[in-house]
Inverse folding.
């Protein structure tokens, strides 16, 4: 929960969360938890937005490889950053990106030991630059102890100040400041009254922390690369599903209707009301097929059989129609998902490659959020590099290695080719090997997992055996 007004009053600052964005974030959270507002009566949800988000996150992070190497010296800095990225990003990269896709963005923030990934319902933006980059924010933490509810508000921002240099002269400095305040309440929905941090589980956290010479905040907002059409002035990102809420609702209705029809498709027996009353009065349990209509006795016959008609074909056509619209709106190729009446199947890599490549372009757009060339062509930038910067900066601030080691690293990112098809690649390489354009040993190394030495020995043994066969017998005997 966000205590917007209370936080603004406590810190004397302004936050940027419009009512439209607040409502949208709550709706996206409802989608993720399987509780969209249209779930009522016979309408259920298949949580298809989660299915799409998982699929996209898997494609984005598939076989992602991040290597941190030193620029000079022993490389202790690079090793420390590598371990932190392995522990605090790579292990949960798919989940992190799924949250970004579903909720529009996530904050990666230093927690004292590593990185936390904070969802939009736990932070407020206080400052952002002309490019929409978030430079100030308030983060919220919560816990309950007995009947008390505790909240910590942690405000990160840059401030302009002055200090004296060694010569006693006043110099302007840009200070990065973190302020922590704690609150306690008897009601979960209220922030309550201020309390000392020492009275909470955050007793080891200092109320104020400052650092100089930081180029970036000690957090980075991982923003969904979609245009914010809900609030164009907001620095926050929007969900991948921000413009297809209605289609998700229609899909749930279509699937629910098909499900209800399937449940009701067994033959029914319509019997007269007097027969039903007689059975109930005498403790006779009626079969499930008996339809209790409450109608008067039928004069022509005591019962009548009724077989419901299933509209499976038209229902499936409607479901695939909605799936196609959803695929197009979230950046997947039309036809990426197809409902064949039994299951929903995703397109193959070959189909992706031969289609409009919308899926490929969408995945690449997300990957560029993580790692991309810098605009001036000098080096690379992105969330992964910002996370490394935060880890490096805090290691120096905490005295874990000397300032001379600051920046002694380079990052190299690699992603899987999402249109690669192992079977097709193997068949093509086999053809090249048979035609003499690739060595057979190289084929075995690439596609069978042999070492180069093992592969060469196998090829040589096969050559000798084939020569022996041509001489008259399997083992070369007369």
């Amino acid at each position: 929960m966000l205590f917007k007004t209370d936080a603004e009053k406590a810190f004397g600052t302004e936050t940027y969360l419009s009512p439209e964005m607040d409502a949208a974030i709550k709706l996206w959270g409802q989608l993720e938890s399987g509780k969209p507002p249209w779930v009522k009566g016979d309408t259920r949800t298949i949580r298809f937005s989660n299915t799409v988000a998982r699929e996209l996150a898997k494609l984005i992070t598939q076989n992602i490889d991040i290597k941190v190497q030193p620029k000079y010296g022993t490389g202790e800095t690079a090793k420390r950053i590598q371990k932190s990225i392995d522990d605090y990003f790579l292990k949960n990269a798919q989940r992190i990106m799924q949250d970004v896709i579903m909720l529009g963005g996530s904050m990666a923030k230093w927690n004292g030991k590593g990185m936390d990934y904070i969802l939009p319902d736990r932070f407020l933006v206080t400052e952002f630059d002309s490019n929409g980059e978030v430079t100030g924010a308030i983060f919220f933490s919560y816990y309950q102890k007995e009947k008390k509810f505790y909240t910590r508000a942690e405000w990160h921002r840059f401030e302009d100040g002055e200090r004296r240099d060694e010569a006693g002269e006043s110099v302007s400095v840009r200070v990065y400041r973190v302020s922590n305040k704690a609150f306690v309440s008897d009601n979960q929905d209220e922030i309550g009254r201020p309390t000392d941090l020492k009275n909470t589980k955050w007793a080891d956290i200092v109320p104020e922390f400052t650092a100089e010479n930081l180029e970036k905040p000690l957090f980075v907002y991982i923003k969904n690369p979609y245009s914010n059409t809900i609030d164009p002035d907001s620095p926050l990102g929007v969900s991948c599903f921000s413009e297809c809420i209605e289609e998700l609702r229609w899909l749930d209705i279509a699937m629910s209707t098909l499900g209800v029809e399937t449940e009701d498709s067994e033959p029914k027996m319509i019997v007269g009301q007097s027969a039903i009353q007689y059975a109930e009065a005498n403790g006779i349990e009626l079969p499930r097929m008996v339809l209790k209509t409450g109608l008067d006795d039928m004069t022509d016959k005591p019962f009548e059989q009724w077989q419901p008609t299933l509209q499976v074909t038209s229902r499936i056509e409607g479901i695939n129609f909605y799936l196609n619209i959803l695929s197009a709106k979230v950046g997947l190729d039309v036809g990426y998902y197809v409902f064949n009446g039994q299951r929903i199947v995703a397109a193959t890599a070959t189909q992706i490659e031969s289609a409009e490549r919308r899926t490929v372009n969408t995945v690449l757009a997300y990957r560029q959020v993580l790692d991309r060339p810098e605009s001036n062509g000098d080096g690379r930038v992105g969330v992964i590099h910002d996370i490394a910067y935060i880890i490096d900066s805090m290691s120096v601030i905490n005295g874990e290695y000397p300032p001379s080691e600051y920046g002694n690293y380079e990052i190299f990112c690699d992603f899987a080719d999402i249109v690669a098809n192992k079977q097709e690649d193997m068949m093509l390489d086999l053809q090249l090997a048979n035609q003499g354009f690739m060595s057979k040993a190289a084929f075995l190394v690439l596609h069978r997992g042999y070492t180069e030495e093992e592969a060469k020995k196998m090829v040589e043994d096969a050559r000798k055996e084939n020569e022996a066969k041509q001489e008259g017998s399997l083992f070369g005997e007369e």
